[in-house]
Amino acid sequence: MTIFNLGSINADHVYRVPHLPGPGETLAATSMQTGLGGKGANMSVAAARAGSHVAHIGAIGSDGIWARNRLLEYGVDTRHIAELDVPTGHAIINVDDAGENAITLFAGANQAISEDSVANVLSTGSTGDILVTQNETNAQSVAAKVGSKLGFRVCYAAAPFDAGAVKVVLPYLDFLILNAVEAKQLEQALGVSIEELDVADIIITLGSDGARWISEGVDQHFAAIKVDPVDTTGAGDTFTGYVLAGLDRGLTMGQSISLAMRAAALMVMRMGTADVIPDLKEVEAFSGI
Prior knowledge:
The chain is α/β, with parallel strands linked by helices. It is 32% helix and 27% strand.
């Protein structure tokens, strides 16, 4: 089977700082590195490193050829990444000594993806394939509609959170992943509880408290593996990629979440994003510290 990912591709510029800067504050960084990122790219790398065939649908500028090549190196099918006359997206990421981050995004080519090309790529898939998208590209609603019509398992990772964007794709979703703050915001926007949503599977990530899986007749908590965090950037994307890859490989939801918990725990102990996502062998061998 194939995981199709309509997802962002960014150059991540990561700055290590003693604390996250406040309004008007000029702060000296202690280190800086640039690597592959974007919620979409992170999820594609995670799912590919977890053993799935991942076809990434996205766009870069001429300044982003290296990013497409890096995705290919990590095992992602990059044939559907267009090169456009628009700058590649990028992120400015500040990470403090506690591992917390503050991120500024520039969308660039991520918001210039051809809707027709998205539909055409998805038409090559098969019933039972997985489609995932996030709120860092355009064409999300088109992808969700087409994926649902074709019998895909349609997943939405609701970040960066926007209630309006979730509302548009909600009728087509089989699987929704969001964090606790986003879950509360969605409940307020819709006027219903998360448990009442007509979505087959919902995962609410809880950071250091683990995750919650809500399905018909199921409301199960999964404890996080306790580790000493270095950088939380990309941990949620790694979790999502590993959950989807687990389902694609025939694991149960519970088994997929447990595997993804280990992957996310490994991820927060590393500085960086897509370039440091652990592979399946590492994750299976990891039991925590």
